[in-house]
Amino acid sequence: MTTLSTATAIVPPHALALDGFALSGTIPARMEKLARRLLRARNPDCAVVKRLRRLRHASADGLGHLTVRTPDRAQRLHYRFGTSDEDVIWQIFGGGDYDLTRLRRFDDISRLVERRAAAGQRPLIIDAGANIGVSAVFFALTFPTAVVVAIEPEASNFALLERNTQGLGVHCRRAALSAEAGHATVHDGGEGPWSFRTEKAAQPGGGVPCLTINELFAAHAGPDVFPFLVKIDIEGGEEDVFGRNTQWVAQTPVIITELHDWLLPGQRTALPFLRCISALDRDFVYLGEDVFSIDNRLAG
């Protein structure tokens, strides 16, 4: 049996640093919020917007870029100016959306990862609704030994997901998360690149393939890899995922999901999640936009 170093099992998120995600080194911090708002106006004829975009750190292909640094490595991220890509970066690396150290149960969770590392086991993290890969990069850097599987159905987001996770060993799958196998079509939610939604394809074989978490656990978990964390942000698709075939839930110490009743009023998309989770011995913690569901047996 190989014993993994418990010292490298978790990198505290406060050890991560961003380089290059600023409008300009000379722009006062108090103006940054206004500048980001102007950039999001998406008016190509606005001279102020054009000037601000020229001040951004841009790569040869016109994308913005930044570097995420840990004590041991640097990871380049690319993003699209004036889009929800910027909000994703700020939420995850600025707001700490998926920072488990905010939880009072973090010590329990940390000890679980360390115990498994001492037994030679790596954590499996499923990132469903991975968008351009910012969350996958966060998970891969904070849990360096983890097997990270990132799922994103939309083509342009997926291209950046692959690019942004390069060198981290993240398994990228262009697919939709579902409760059962099949295919799904992708639809623009109209609120930027983070708003794409999926629905079952009308024709067999149309659209992108559907993957289930049970299927992903079977493919990636094993004697040396244990299910650890599942993050789900799929714009209402959680109604399907938690509606049936939920054997995986009881196997997962930490589940993070954003519920979307606010986006889809009257459709009760959160109900299957609430029914599924309430039947189990799990804590239910709301932090920001996300629910953290923690198994009281596995994380204790």
Number of helices: 9
Strand order of the largest sheet: 6-5-4-11-12-14-13
Percentage of residues in helical conformation: 25-40%
Total domains, how many? Answer: 2
Protein name: FkbM family methyltransferase
Organism: Vineibacter terrae
Pfam family, one: Methyltransf_21
Keywords: Methyltransferase, Transferase
Descriptive overview:
The longest helix is centred in the middle third of the chain and has 13 residues. The protein contains nine helices and 14 strands. The strands form three sheets. A seven-stranded mixed sheet has the order 6-5-4-11-12-14-13, with helices on both faces. Strands 7-10-8-9 form a four-stranded mixed sheet. It is α/β, with parallel strands linked by helices. It has two domains: 81 residues, no CATH class; 198 residues, Rossmann fold, CATH 3.40.50. Strand 5, helix 6 and strand 6 form a beta-alpha-beta unit.
Task: Give a short synopsis of this structure.
By secondary structure, this protein is of the alpha/beta class. It has nine helices and 14 strands.
